[in-house]
Amino acid sequence: MAMNGSTIRKRYIVTAFVLILSAIAYVLVARPMLRSMGATTYGPLSSHSKDIILVHAEKLLMNVPPLSDLSDDSLRFVAMPSFGDRWMAVSLSSDGSRALGHLAVLDRKTGKVSKRAFRLTEPEFDRFTAAWDAETGNYWGALSLWADGTSLGFERRRGSTITSGIGNSPCHYDVLGDLAADHIGPHAEELTDLSVPYIDRFLASDHC
Questions:
Q1: Terminal C-alpha separation, the chain
Q2: What is the spatial distance between Cα 36 and Cα 138, in angstroms, rounded to a whole number?
Q3: pTM value?
Q4: What CATH number is given for 37-203 in this structure?
Q5: What is the DSSP letter of 26?
Q6: What pLDDT, in 10s, does the model give residues 29-59?
Q7: Cβ contacts of residue 162 below 8 Å, gap of 6+?
Q8: Digit-coded pLDDT (tens) for 86-121
């Protein structure tokens, strides 16, 4: 039996209503839940719920250029090992022909922050960000809670899109730290603190 115009309109209205409710549920429930699990989400770190880890991360990131001053192909991250003597913040920005990095290192014993700039070749930057994007692009977070470890937060700009994430799950964030140690460590030796020699074995374990 053919549907009349009134029935069709009602179905459109119901469908639209369901879509609106789904969008509201995502904004109010799903997105905060994903962020609490360390998932990669849209928006800068400032869009995440404040906690003591994010406060420390944002404070240290103030020592490197803000995302607004970086190019459309850029990355900022901060790494805070629970038992480490130093925490680090890094910004990387490429204009297509060169990549400039800034490093800030907090000495946890003295509270002093040292800063310096470094450079990557464009191929080095491309390899690093490609590996980073592959790891973070579809990360939905972890249900497990970890009392310690290396907390890591990041902001990634690609064109007009900004994504971010923060957490300490070793099954994900230790991988990012190890990538930084491997790719940037030759130019900023402090980042070798984030190296995880056994990362492949750990990822294959029941923990992940």
A1: 54
A2: 16
A3: 0.79
A4: 3.30.1560
A5: I
A6: 444 444 456 789 999 998 887 778 889 999 9
A7: 42, 43, 44, 67, 155, 156
A8: 999 999 999 888 899 999 999 999 999 999 999 999
Position 5 pLDDT exceeds 70: no
Place of tokens 């991360």: 57
CA distances from 128 to 13, 56, 58, 120, 153 (A): 47, 25, 23, 10, 16
Instruction: Decide: 196 and 174 in contact? Cβ < 8 Å.
Output: yes
Residue boundaries of the structural domains of the chain: 1-36, 37-203
As beta bridge partners, residue 89 has: 78, 104
Radius of gyration of the chain from its Cα atoms, rounded to whole angstroms: 20
- Whose structure tokens read 């579809």? 138
Q: How many helical (H) and strand (E) elements, i.e. helices and strands, does the chain have?
A: 6, 7
CA distance 155 to 162: 7
C-beta separation of 149 from 167 below 8 A: no
Report the C-alpha gap between 81 and 106 in whole angstroms: 11
CA distance 125 to 92: 8
Q: How many CB atoms lie within 10 A of CB 127?
A: 15
Taking every pair of C-alpha atoms in the chain, what is the biggest distance, in angstroms?
80
Residue located via tokens 């191929």? 123
SS3 81: strand
Token pair for 72: 């459309």
d(CA 75, CA 11): 45
Contact 61, 147 (CB under 8 A): no
- Which phi and psi angles does 12 have, rounded to 5°? -60, -40
